Amino acid sequence: MLMNSTGRRILRDRPRLTSKSLDIPRLRSLPSNTVGYNYAAWLDAEGVTPDTRAQVRYIDDEECAYVMQRYRECHDFYHALVGLPVFREGEVALKAFEFANTGLPMTGLAVFSALTLKKGEWRRFLDIYGPWAARNGARADDVINIYWEEELETDINELRARHGIEKPPDLRAMRKEAREARKREKEAKEAMNRATV
């Protein structure tokens, strides 16, 4: 953050991302292509608030503690920026993106939770979301240096382009399609079993 002019401003200003500082009702009223609207819509869809992030503890250095708090508070903006949901598969993909982008060891350790994914989820992570995360995280500007408070009315696609981030395929849609395919397969097997009886 110290090597980036925006990062230095964030460190100097020390803004917080909370329900009070962000005025979520106002964000909901912004045009649907804006960062603020997409963030509020993502919070609503996932049933979370900016205040669900725990306060940083056990870090004595005041500036380091602020950086970790800012990282925690920015996490939901990263979700909204790339469109990944909060269930485990989306979280693993986002943590892989964060690790490739920030190099924070805790994000790298969180990627190991991919080993607990179900077979279909694991396959999607290996084939789609893992490569997306590595590619985008490595090439994107450091997302910790986005001054979100100043970008709320920015077109979200313009912000992605400016920072070198491509949106991954819609994970919710892919999961729904996979569920429907399994349902059709099950129904076909049942129909076949009935026909042979």
From TrEMBL:
Keywords: Lyase, Membrane, Metal-binding, Mitochondrion, Mitochondrion inner membrane, Ubiquinone biosynthesis, Zinc. One of its GO terms (molecular function) is 4-hydroxy-3-methoxy-5-polyprenylbenzoate decarboxylase activity. Pathway: Cofactor biosynthesis; ubiquinone biosynthesis. It is a peripheral membrane protein. It catalyses: a 4-hydroxy-3-methoxy-5-(all-trans-polyprenyl)benzoate + H(+) = a 2-methoxy-6-(all-trans-polyprenyl)phenol + CO2. InterPro entries: Coq4 (IPR007715), Coq4_euk (IPR027540). Component of a multi-subunit COQ enzyme complex, composed of at least COQ3, COQ4, COQ5, COQ6, COQ7 and COQ9. This is 4-hydroxy-3-methoxy-5-polyprenylbenzoate decarboxylase. It comes from Epicoccum nigrum.
